[in-house]
Amino acid sequence: xxxxxxxxxxxxxxxxxxLYQAWQRDYAPQPQVQQAQQSVAxxxxxxxxxxxxxxxxxxxxxxPDVGVPAASAxxxxxSVQAARSKKISVETDLFRILIDTxxxxxxxxxxxxxxxxxxxxxxxxxLLTPVPPELFIAQSGLKSGxxxxxxxxxxxxxxESFDYKLADGQNELVVDLVWRGANGVKVTKRYRFQRDSxxxxxxxxxxxxxAKPWSARGYEQLQRMHxxxxxxxxxxxxYVGAAIYSPDEKYEKIPFNKMAETPLNRDVTGGWVAMxxxxxxxAWIPPADEPEHFYSMALPGGRYVVGAYSPxx
Length: 313
What we know:
The chain is mainly β. The chain has one domain: Beta-galactosidase, Chain A, domain 5 (Distorted Sandwich), CATH 2.70.98. The protein is 7% helix and 46% strand. The strands form three sheets. Strands 1, 2, 9, 10, 11, 13, 14, 16 and 17 form a nine-stranded mixed beta sheet that branches. A five-stranded mixed beta sheet has the order 6-5-4-3-8, with no helix packed on it. It has a five-stranded antiparallel beta sheet with strand order 7-12-19-18-15. It is globular, with a radius of gyration of 18 Å.
């Protein structure tokens, strides 16, 4: 009987563009994500689930059949499927966040230091939302081989609590979601929130007590809707779309129309994928020394995805 315990780690960050520019200067060449001993980097993604161990290698350049779910994979508010899941509330000094137990997806995020306007100081800017037409969510999961059970972005997790708050004097807040498969595999999806930090660490801790070996790849992605409009005259120059960083090409914008015409398909080590929304950015940041495959796609209903997945472990 194999008893495997792996730690797969990635980070997601939400920044204002001014903070992003400072972060870019300091960290773009080597995005830093601390890894525990015996850790393995995992990228995650959603609505575009990378397949498991029966795929071509990372270096083949081919984009594997990622098994794109139908448009209903991201439930619309009020749907029966959405009603089955619950939301976990997390409050820190910088965030108010909701995590859906379906997939452990970050569905809602308010930036507590940024009001929507000077005239509304108590109304905080909401960067993530699951509600069309402004839908913008951060998804992640694990994908194994064909017909092998694994906690993808559609899996239902369990949680011990649905209300977390960073207390005075507390520097770290840990939120655990647990998935158990019939195959004896247990996965703890762990979010770590740090005081005074816009970076959130996401870990998948895998324990296999089953009779068979089990392997998977991690994936993460950002999904958002776009109606094709460029905004009003005051927002005309504010970019809304995807962006990536790689050591070879540096910072690149990936507009929505480009995703539809030529999907991103690139192996990268030491980079990140992001969605930019006017003066704010959300980014998945894999460990700097782990190879990732960056991808993008256009989905029905004006939805777009940019993400990354890791090798099978």
